[in-house]
Design a protein that fits this description.
Elements: H1 9-14, H2 26-38, H3 47-81
Amino acid sequence: MPSSQTASQEELKAAKVPVAWRDQCSALLIPLNTCRRQTYYMPWECNDERHTYEKCQYDDLMRRMKKMSKLKLQQAEEAEDA
């Protein structure tokens, strides 16, 4: 399910994003890595890009946790009924 924050496989391959980092926030990682390379990975640079990417990662984690919680609740209800 592609979203506005998910880059295509071609874009990720062209940007040399490792497979492990290709997730829901991958489109935000491409400009962040570009900024990092241009500024020689200076920690005080690319703050906006980094915070945007980290916020996306956090929101994705919360979404997955909420989904898992609903799934566990549903399974518990089904176990009660059986």
